[in-house]
Design the sequence.
């Protein structure tokens, strides 16, 4: 997934939160690995920069045992 930064004051972790709804630091690391030179741009990603994001993982839902209420 490619996202273009459209405003000032956007950081990589904010991009990850807005696009993938995650605060997982490993995803931020993946974004930096997918985009060589992105970290060299500074704390804030310049507007107009295109950033490649990893595909979102399928949510892992907890498996809960079923309960029989009636006979």
Sequence:
């Amino acid at each position: 997934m490619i996202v273009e930064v459209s405003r000032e004051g956007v950081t990589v972790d904010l991009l990850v939160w807005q696009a993938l709804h995650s605060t997982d630091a490993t995803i931020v690391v993946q974004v930096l690995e997918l985009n060589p030179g992105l970290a060299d741009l500074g704390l804030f990603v310049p507007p107009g920069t295109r950033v490649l994001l990893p595909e979102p993982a399928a949510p892992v839902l907890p498996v809960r045992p079923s309960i029989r209420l009636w006979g």
